[in-house]
Write a structure and sequence with these properties.
The protein is an alpha/beta fold. The strands form two sheets. A five-stranded mixed β-sheet has the order 5-8-9-7-6. Helix 1 packs across helix 4, helix 1 packs parallel to helix 8 and helix 9 packs across helix 12. It is globular and about 85 Å long.
């Protein structure tokens, strides 16, 4: 049922979201040039009403028609909406557009299916053109007589209901439904499928609407993230929160705070109360936006604010954030040390156990054959775009052959090799892209599944399953934190040119000499190279043993050999060779530093030529 609601909501929002620019243009024109605007102008003001009455409904209807019936559906939808528009030019027919547009697409699609194989030769163009015109005309007439009047009545009832809530100060109670629905990824459906049509009608009459503010206020989510940033006991989660704050507040991607709520579901009380207080304030002070704040960032929020309401709206956002923060903080403090990573691992473990699986580790069977990775979220415009950008930048140095992009969960392309989605959208993703390997994540900023995927794609290795720490292992955490992954004796500079095999052997022998591995692991490093090259690009190689030989690792360690003249790794030369022996994830911090080195050309070049071991050790420690 939840997936069905999500799909329906996604369909409604997918008609509106591509046309948000038109709504924003209308909002700016209204804010600037109507009689009560910042700079009233009679000429420019004349564009406001036609844009709202004709342009926006036609765009939405044509988009809905195209979603169902392609380009021919787009034309039929655009023709058909004229009927509802002309049935009552006093209201904006956005809801009618979301009905008659898809209906037009469906009608022309069914006509084309019926005519397939029965089209007389030479009459294709004639039939195609006349069918679009006739079907569009009939639907326009039906829209004028039936759909337009019915939608006028429905919109009048909804608007009256909203007015009653506003007049009796009951509108804040709607936050009880908004915030939980957002966390279930129904935010776009609520905002663009329900609130926007009502808000647009109110804005046309009053110049602004509070309905634009109910779902898009960034304050409630900001309070939750700030609570985690200041009071979370888990370091990984706490460190991820500041980045999430920036993305949420300035990028407008509200999905970024959903996992933080799902970690401790009781914390949903915080954004509910925060939004309730903000809505009460907005209602009390008569605030409203002139157009949709999409995405819901503080920037979009303020750009859609009338000049006279600017300060009051800022206060409302601060109230929402403050109340949410005050409520969330003690919950975060008392929640223990459960992290985002632990929450996801726990969920994956339960899922695996329910299916009788031994381990919930997701592996890429043939990393070298992966060519397209798609990040997918509900709308395909927010969290997935951020996740794709972050992962694309992370992997481009070592795997430039992999295409990384984003889309909505219901539109994953058929040639996608790996689809990455939030756990709650997994079922929809599986139906959308059955051919793709599905990787579920809980957080786009700090998720172990993404680290695992990166490791497999760049090294070909399967991540090791980490067992729970024993009492002996946890008895001395200070000692564990002081483990040295690389030491001075593990750094060899100014090495003479050798073959790839000799360089790998030298790295293995040094690992063995320092007590990191046994001879079996050293031998397996040559076998590992035959599977997938460990050359990462930009003159860096990271030879290591096979997964089968990991039992030969005695302790985590990395060695570094510098070959200023380079070692041939296929068609490329590696000046920097890092021999790796890792237990669990103890070596991942150093690998992250190596990746950071790749991004700084000056530091990278110095690594290739320096004779200063102390400088190298300081960079890698």
């Amino acid at each position: 049922m939840k997936n069905g609601v999500q799909r329906f909501g996604k369909f409604l929002s997918s008609m509106v979201m591509p046309n948000i620019g038109a709504l924003i243009a209308f909002g700016f024109l209204a804010a600037l040039f109507i009689d009560t605007g910042w700079i009233p102008n009679e000429g420019f003001n004349s564009m406001v009403s036609p844009m709202l009455s004709y342009l926006i409904p036609i765009l939405i209807a044509s988009t809905g028609g195209k979603l169902i019936g392609g380009d021919r559906g787009r034309v039929v939808g655009a023709i058909a909406i004229i009927g509802p528009i002309m049935s009552n030019t006093e209201i904006t027919m956005l809801m009618a557009a979301m009905i008659i547009g898809p209906l037009g697409g469906w009608c022309i699609k069914k006509f084309d299916e019926a005519m397939e194989g029965h089209m007389p030769a030479g009459f294709e163009m004639l039939i195609n053109n006349f069918s679009v015109g006739i079907i569009g005309m009939i639907l326009a007439m039906v829209g004028y007589v039936v759909i337009g009047p019915v939608m006028s009545i429905i919109l009048a009832i909804l608007t009256a209901g909203v007015n009653i809530l506003v007049q009796h100060s009951l509108l804040p109670l709607i936050a009880i439904f908004i915030e939980p629905a957002k966390v279930l990824f129904l935010n776009n459906a609520i905002n663009h499928g329900i609130f926007t049509p009502i808000a647009t009608e109110q804005a046309a009459e009053l110049g602004k609407s509070i309905m634009y503010m109910l779902e898009t206020n960034p304050g409630p989510g900001l309070g939750v993230l700030l609570a985690y940033m200041f009071f979370c006991k888990d370091k990984t989660t706490k460190d991820s929160a500041p980045g999430a704050v920036i993305i949420h507040l300035f990028g407008g991607i509200h999905e970024i705070y959903f996992p933080y709520v799902l970690m401790n579901p009781i914390i949903i009380i915080a954004p509910i109360l925060g939004n309730m207080c903000a809505i009460f304030w907005f209602n009390l002070t008569g605030c409203g936006l002139v157009g949709p704040a999409s995405p819901g960032s503080i920037i979009a929020f303020l750009m859609m604010s009338p000049g006279a309401d600017m300060i009051k709206i800022i206060i409302g956002v601060v109230i929402a954030a403050a109340v949410s923060f005050l409520v969330a903080s003690p919950i975060v403090k008392m929640a223990g040390s459960k992290s985002l990573e632990e929450a996801q691992n726990e969920m994956a473990s339960m899922k695996a156990q329910s299916k009788g699986l031994a381990a919930p580790v997701e592996t890429v069977k043939i990393p070298g054959q992966v060519k397209k990775i798609i990040f997918a979220c509900d709308a395909g415009m927010g969290s997935s775009a951020m996740g794709a950008t972050k992962f694309r930048n992370r992997i481009k140095a070592s795997r430039p052959d992999i295409y990384v992009s984003n889309t909505s969960v219901d539109n994953i392309p058929s040639d996608c090799d790996i689809a990455i989605v939030q756990t709650t959208l997994a079922e929809r993703a599986a139906k959308s892209a059955p051919q793709a390997q599905l990787i579920t994540i809980g957080n786009f900023l700090a998720d172990p599944a993404l680290d695992s995927l990166y490791l497999q794609l760049t090294t070909g290795d399967t991540p090791e399953i980490i067992e729970a720490a024993s009492a002996e292992e946890t008895a001395a955490p200070e000692e564990a934190e002081k483990k040295e992954v690389i030491i001075k004796d593990g750094i060899k500079l100014g090495q003479k040119p050798v073959t790839k095999e000799e360089a790998i052997r030298a790295a293995g022998d040094l690992l063995k000499k320092l007590g990191y591995v046994d001879q079996e692991y050293v031998d397996s490093m040559q076998e590992r190279e035959k599977l997938v090259s460990t050359y990462m690009g930009m003159g860096v190689a990271i030879p290591h043993g096979t997964a089968e030989a990991k039992h030969g690792v005695k302790k985590t360690g990395i060695v570094f050999l510098q070959y200023p003249e380079g070692v041939d790794f296929g068609d490329e030369k590696a000046q920097l060779v890092f021999g790796i022996a890792g237990i669990g994830t103890e070596h991942m911090d150093l690998l992250s530093k190596i990746c950071t080195i790749l991004e700084d050309e000056d530091v990278l070049e110095k690594f290739k030529t320096t004779g200063d071991i102390d400088w190298v050790l300081s960079q890698l420690s």
